[in-house]
Amino acid sequence: MKELENIKELFTTAIANVKTNDELNVVRTDFLGKSGHLTTCMKLIKDLSAEEKKAFGQEVNTLKVFVSESIDSKKIELENKAIEEELASMPRVDLTTPNSGESGSLHPVTIIQERLINIFRGMGFAIEDGNEVETEYNNFEAVNIPKFHPARDMQDTFYLDNGQVLKTHTSASQNRIMRKYGAPLKAIFPGRCFRNEELDASHENTFFQMEGIMIDKDISISNLIYFMKTMLSEVFEREVNVRLRPGFFPFVEPGFELDCSCPYCGGKGCRVCKHSGWIELCPCGMIHPNVLEMGGIDPEEYTGFAFGLGLSRLVMMTYGFKDIRNLNSKDLKVLEQTRIK
Ligand code: PHE
Fold this sequence. Notes:
A hairpin with a 5-residue loop joins strand 6 and strand 7. This protein is 38% helix and 18% strand. The protein has helices at 2-17, 21-32, 37-40, 50-89, 108-122, 136-139, 174-181, 221-236, 289-294, 311-319, and strands at 126-127, 133-134, 165-166, 185-194, 206-216, 242-246, 252-261, 278-287, 303-310.
């Protein structure tokens, strides 16, 4: 029937132009909906003879099936197109490329540093960054080492043309951090340090330290011992003991060398602790009143401790490095060092 042929033609053009799901829904309503072409054309049936009615009914049905199947396949076509477009916009990874067998890994210094940061973060310490190029004031004067003080000889460094220095210790950041936060204050600040050294297996011109300070009312040496013991027991994953020996650093009073019972032999004596049962690990002490004052903190009201953990040393001990220079070498074997048992 002419009427149905028109509808079919109309539909074929309409469906061919569909580009989106919304457009497809419009076509569906236009043809199959309550007042769509295929529903309204049924009204014509009343003017037909009984014979014609049957044939017309069949033709309408065939057309309906054709229309709804075409709409269904258009829907699938649109869905596939959307997936293809999304895939095309994603970065391509070829999962069939053979693996070289090598994968990157973190540097041992980074691994130990991250571990320390997690431990101290858990104890409420802020994690701070320090500069590698520092003013002479921050590196020396602000930590109670005036010009011409003999203590400067212990930390000879590299002076830049502008008078600044490559920092010789993480203590150089103490002043800036005290001024930034004031008291009370708990912070650690790991960093790369530089010294003009005669190089050998245990001396390198570039190495890592991790400084910590805690300043509050009534901070005493007991707090220092508690934090050092907790931190070192976490690092070595076993209970260690600590002991203090007197040590001189102009920025602490009293100053100490902190030894840790050897985590490898439990204090019985082994090659790591050179059979003494103790390992010298961490200079520390109570922050000198002059240093607090220069940091803008009243030494009458507040006291604090500071420690300067030798991060490179700790890394060497943990992974059994015999030569500190390996830590800065570009030799990838460094990354394969295994832990001493
Ligand atoms: N800054 C000292 C050094 O590098 C270590 C230290 C830090 C000592 C904090 C005492 C307190 O030698």
